[in-house]
Amino acid sequence: MSRHLLPIVPLFLLTACGDSAPAELPPLSDEALGAVTDNAGAATEQLARQVDELFTKPEEIGETRAAIVMHAGEIAAERYGEGYDAETRFVSWSMAKTVTAVMIGMLVADGRLRLDDSPPVPRWQRPGDPRGEITLRQLLQMRSGLRHTEAGDPIYESSEVRMLFLDGRDDMADYAEAQPLEGEPGRKFEYSSNTTVILADIAARALTKSDDPETRRKAVADYLQTRLFGPLDMDSMVPEFDASGTLVGGSLMHATARDWAKFGEFLRHGGSERGSQLIPRRWIDFMTAPSPRAGYYGAQTWLNRESGLDRDEEKQDRGPDTLFAAIGHMGQYVLVSPRQKLTVVRLGHTDSAARMALVDELMDVVELYPET
Q1: Beta strand extents in 262-372 (DSSP E only)
Q2: What average pLDDT score do residues 304-317 get?
């Protein structure tokens, strides 16, 4: 069931108070109308206006550089900001975490990893090391107990910045895995890009015994291409690796907006593509189920619950509670709503102060589509 899904009223029917005439709305530009296809699945003018607002409110919601609405497997609307187009690769930031979770799920399905075992991190396997109690499941659900501070004060002291840009940048996994426990594994949710780099290192160790950076890089890149990017025709995808050959799985993958939409559609279909199940459906169910310590987070995936999608308390009940998302720094979103047959991609640059307003605009798009 929908969580108080607001009734959809066409904008052109909205009226002012009393007996006044219907409110006059400015005419839509050819660019706005041209963004909507014949497969809109919603009122064309209404969809065009909502997508247009993503591009025409920079002071309120930041700069939108690309937006795609997919409905029932077809592009319903597609638009780009000035200087960007269908060939532009956009950085994922933390949307990469959801891609990394899919890769881990494939390795679990292959029998190379086990969800409730201690993962193959050599320093954690030394006798007496309490980090040996951490499970793969806990890492995926961001409840490892490791001392990882995502946003510190000052910012250059945060674990994320130190790993990505300072003393940990050449061997990010080594930096992340060396951190001590600050709590019992499994007890507390703490969002952490460092944790996802550990997952990327675990994937490399599952795929090769070599410590050679190029061998590690190739093993992971080939696996992703063969098992995920290739079958989905995500031809633009470029994952980044550090100097030690570890995938920067928490923040640095690049792809076109259309390829990010393909990834969202893959998730919407429960891990299948054109009738081929690339990953067990139960793994996507696991990724999109609330974790024991955070109802708004699954496994490297944000959920439409308890303000998990950057909304304040007054607006957190918009849209289905089955909607989930890959979310990245500065306003990167792949919103996926299976019950609405919907995937919405927004890429751009939005400061943290404007994120709630941006998501509110995105939910205006989402709510144009009924649940089925």
Answers
A1: 272-273, 276-277, 302-303, 324-328, 332-337, 342-349
A2: 73
